[in-house]
TrEMBL record:
Principal location: membrane
Keywords of the record: ATP-binding, Membrane, Nucleotide-binding, Transmembrane, Transmembrane helix, Transport
Organism placement in taxonomy: Eukaryota, Viridiplantae, Chlorophyta, core chlorophytes, Trebouxiophyceae
SUPFAM superfamilies attached to this UniProt entry: P-loop containing nucleoside triphosphate hydrolases (SSF52540)
Organism: Chlorella sorokiniana (Freshwater green alga)
Record's protein name: Atp-binding cassette superfamily
Length: 715
């Protein structure tokens, strides 16, 4: 029945086909299981959480499944029901409740951010944010303004919990009266100043991926598509809908369009709280106005929006509901934007008529460094404004406390904090990531062309140098050289390909992981699968050229073993490259470290120094070197059972020649079957991949934790 459902639904929808296949596998897994606990554990692991809960409640996965007597009819019916539910769910019939919109009140109290500066003995600390406090009610657009370096980005990062490790952050950030919990990321969009996007995807593809990845299965496919179209239109991206994002090497959308795509990607998840760092930087006046109007619309729809902005024009200024003016990390003004002019006037700084208030505030809160007298005067002005604002804050504190967060908003936030963090189940994550990685990789033609041309050139150069090898001992040495060079070529090409491609997407992956868009495991597997064809093609092309021109062992079986070993070697090397680049803090460091590791593994490959010649206490390194297993395998494959390698008696009188097995004995490979290097290589490929995955999994960017303020600790 489940197979039938699979067959029927395959042409309708790819996801349905995927889940149908999963259903069949699930059926098989349950069929071979011996107890219902195992079956339930498997279902819990693989099924979307909402579906699992639904199945438990509806009895499909009850404790009576597969009771002692193995009631097959009952079991098959229930299993079919489970598969059909999965398929229907994927077709858009939802069982999970749609994420309801909540109103978000954001509050921060006494935020103090300090960073260490200077080296060793001269090390001091610099205060970047100095006791900032405010309450932002729901449905408001808050603009944070101030001179450059006043701490705007630091404040937004502190509110988002994304201040990079290396300082200390004290105070409180409350969402609907609660400290930021597990659900904070799912209701928050954080738009950074830097645009990190895949260059080889179009605007539409980028948006579509974000919608499918960040929205839960409870939002139907049609709704996701409609949301993508709406955001594209809202941000004025319709005319570049099918243009590539582009990069320094690929012509793509303009800087402003890129920025809007970055904002749009975050808007797709329908966040209730938006934190944006300079969303208008790099945009012309018209585009900046558009983006800010979009943000105002979102705020009017009930969302809370916080955006830093540099000297907005007056028409943009009029869009703000609330305004926060900072100077030197201190509050200069916080309150309704429409009351700011009156406030500064009450402090003795009247904004001239027909003057843009944003420009006026920027002038009066900036320190003038042009002369010592001007500097002193501006510092005195700022001190006065800080003083006056602190008095106002004191007076307002009681009123703010009276306007506490409504109990239903707090309860809604508590519910969101209890929700699972990831919007989609693992299989959906995997299928989306695989599709994106494939598109990105298959369109990135230049590295592929370079890889294949380089393989052709190196293959023919090697073949030309070693063609027509005689069956003498010198010829055997040449063949060993060819085998070793084959190992080196496949290793270097694969490691450096990983070092080149992986860091380029590391920033995007970091951002998506921080927003809990998906797990690392499906990303890693999808990436591995996308690299596979190029690695296989490269190894095969190299093998076809070198093997037959050089004239290595002339049997079909030996040729296929050669190709299989070099492919496995390339895959292990690729994994090693990913592990190295994930473990290194930057691309430059990775490129400095990788050659060192490769040279060490090369020295222990068994060619330059034979296994017997390596000091006993260092031999264990051979077992960590994929080059050792690959070289061993290629050598056994080529020399085992081969006829006599004669001597060139005129050059070396008295030489008796050697058989292929004798050569293997000299290299320390006697008595080993060709399966041994296969197993060794496969284990190392798996081990390197696990290491790469583990490094990636645990190398998440670290942020400063928020600790209680010193005053609160004392209290
Ligand atoms: N980790 C750090 N170490 C030392 N100084 C830092 C660190 N982070 C920020 N700063 C300093 O803190 C100040 C505030 O930085 P921030 O980026 O928040 O300012 P900003 O108002 O957003 O500036 P801009 O408008 O130019 O983007 C700057 O002087 C910056 O140099």
């Amino acid at each position: 029945m489940s197979c039938f459902a699979f067959a029927v639904l395959c042409p309708i929808r790819q996801d349905a086909a995927y889940f149908g296949l999963f259903g069949v596998l699930f059926a098989a897994a349950v069929g071979v299981s011996t107890g219902n606990n195992w079956c339930r554990a498997l279902a819990k692991l693989l099924l979307p959480p909402e579906l699992y809960r639904h199945l438990r409640h509806s009895g499909v996965l009850s404790d009576t499944l597969l009771p002692n007597g193995w009631e097959w009819n009952l079991f098959v019916n229930r299993l079919t029901a489970a598969v059909v539910v999965v398929l229907l769910m994927q077709l858009g019939i939802n069982f999970a409740p749609t994420a309801e919109s909540i109103r978000v009140t954001l509050e921060w109290r006494d935020l103090r951010y300090t960073v260490p500066v200077g080296r060793r003995r001269q090390r001091t600390s610099k205060t970047i944010l100095e006791g900032l406090s405010a309450v932002l009610p729901p449905g408001r657009l808050l603009a944070i303004m101030g001179p450059t370096g006043c701490g705007k980005s630091s404040l937004v990062n502190a509110l988002a919990g994304r201040l990079p490790a290396g300082g200390s952050l004290e105070g409180e950030v409350l969402v609907n009266g609660l400290p930021r919990g597990r659900g904070f990321k799912s209701i928050t969009a954080y738009v950074m100043q830097d645009d990190v996007l895949f260059p080889n995807l179009t605007v539409f593809e980028t948006m579509e991926f974000a919608a499918r990845m960040r929205l839960p299965p409870s939002v139907s496919a049609a709704e996701k598509a409609a949301r993508v179209e709406a955001v594209i239109n809202e941000l004025g991206l319709a005319k570049c809908r099918d243009t590539y994002i582009g990069s320094a090497f690929v012509r793509g959308v303009s800087g402003g369009e890129r920025k809007r795509v970055n904002v749009g990607v975050e808007l797709l998840s329908n966040p209730q709280l938006l934190l944006l760092d300079e969303p208008t930087s790099g945009l012309d006046a018209f585009q900046a106005q558009n983006v800010m109007e979009s943000l105002q619309n979102l705020a009017q729809g009930g969302r809370s929006v916080v955006a830093t902005i540099h000297q907005p024009r007056s028409s943009i200024y009029s869009l703000f509901d609330m305004l926060l003016v900072l100077s030197e990390g201190r509050d200069m003004y916080y309150g309704p934007a429409g009351e700011a002019v009156a406030w500064f006037e009450s402090c003795g700084f009247a904004c001239p008529a027909h003057y843009n208030p944003a420009d006026f505030f920027a002038d009066i809160v900036a320190i003038d460094h042009r002369s010592p007298a001007a500097e002193e005067a501006s510092k005195a002005r700022i001190a006065l404004l800080v003083d006056r604002f602190n008095q106002r804050q004191q007076q307002q504190r009681e009123a703010e406390q009276a306007a506490a967060v409504p109990a239903e908003d707090q309860a809604a936030m508590e519910k969101i904090n209890d929700r699972p963090s990831f919007p989609n189940p693992l299989p959906t994550e995997f299928s989306l990531l695989l599709r994106r990685a494939w598109k990105q990789q298959s369109r990135d033609r230049l590295p592929q062309v370079i890889t294949l041309v380089q393989t052709l050139v190196l293959g023919f150069v090697l073949a030309a140098l070693f063609s027509d090898i005689p069956t003498t001992l010198a010829g055997a040495q040449d063949e060993l050289g060819v085998l070793f060079m084959s190992c080196m070529f496949n290793t270097m090409a694969s490691i450096f390909a990983s070092l080149n491609t992986f860091p380029a997407e590391a920033g995007i992956i970091q951002r998506e992981r921080i927003s809990k868009a998906y797990h690392v495991s499906p990303y890693y597997v999808a990436r591995f699968l996308c690299d596979l064809p190029l690695r296989v093609a490269q190894s095969l092309l190299f093998g076809v050229i070198v093997y037959w021109i050089v004239g290595l062992k002339g049997t079909a079986a030996a040729f296929f073993i050669f190709c299989a070993l070099t492919i496995l070697l390339a895959l292990a090397s690729q994994a090693l490259g990913v592990a190295v680049s994930a473990a290194c803090p930057s691309e430059k460091v990775a490129f400095a470290v990788a050659p060192g590791i490769t040279v060490i593994l090369m020295l222990f490959a068994g060619f330059l120094v034979t296994y017997e010649s390596i000091p006993a206490w260092l031999r264990w390194i051979c077992y960590l070197s994929h080059l050792y297993y690959a070289f061993m395998g290629l050598t056994i494959n080529n020399f085992r059972g081969s006829s006599e390698w004669s001597c060139n008696t005129s050059a070396t009188p008295g030489c008796a020649g050697a058989s292929g097995d004798a050569i293997l004995t000299r290299l320390g490979f006697e008595g080993k079957g060709v399966w041994e290097p296969f197993v060794g290589l496969a284990c190392l490929a798996l081990g390197y991949n696990l290491a790469g995955y583990a490094v990636l999994r645990f190398s998440k960017q670290k942020f400063i934790p928020l600790t209680a303020s010193t005053a609160k600790k004392r209290a």
